[in-house]
Write a structure and sequence with these properties.
Two copies of one chain form a homodimer. Chain A has helices at residues 18-31, 44-58, and strands spanning 9-12, 34-40, 63-75, 85-96. By secondary structure, chain A is an alpha+beta fold. Chain A has one domain (2-96): 2-Layer Sandwich (Translation Initiation Factor IF3), CATH 3.30.110.20. Chain A has a four-stranded mixed beta sheet, covered by helices on one side. In chain A, helix 1 crosses helix 2. The radius of gyration of chain A is 15 Å and the shape is elongated.
């Protein structure tokens, strides 16, 4: 099924070290063709670092950035703080070169 | 000259408030068709915020993100700290819709 390609594995960038996510990306890309790195707010800079370090140092000349997309997402407030906040998001897709 | 289009005005994201850069972007886009937002390192998240706030709040439905590119840049060390560092970079281009 060609649809299977859409289920690329996703890495959500959080508070861990950059290198932890790089290792996850490298592991995914050793098994499959594609890996999607997603982040919001302040973690966006880290997502770009993860993509760049993976592409340049660990899998040099083997993967390329096939998509970079930015957007916004609304975060619903909770009872304590009911204000809805808008945060920026990023998705970076790394794909193996043919 | 069609080449003039390439000289789109560039905003380099630094340490000022997000909203200061949004206002610069809005001012540029009121006069010309295109504006390039560039940042490196930790300022990358702010660059995405600037692009998203400009696109969604200030010039809603009038501009779109026509390009997002990530890369790396080498920063030469100085005498005190001679180590060359690599930083991630981003360029986001906002273009007026036709």
């Amino acid at each position: 099924m060609s649809e299977e390609k859409e289920h690329s594995q996703i890495i959500y960038i959080g508070k861990k070290n950059t290198i932890s996510y790089v290792l996850v990306a490298v592991t995914i890309l050793n098994k499959s063709d594609e890996c999607s790195i997603q982040a919001r707010g302040r973690q966006i800079s880290k997502a770009v670092d993860v993509a760049e370090i993976t592409r340049r140092k660990f899998l040099a000349d083997k993967v390329e950035v096939s998509k970079v997309e930015i957007g916004s997402e609304e975060l619903q407030g909770n009872e304590e703080n009911p204000i809805t906040k808008t945060v920026s998001t990023v998705e970076i897709v790394l794909t193996k070169k043919e």
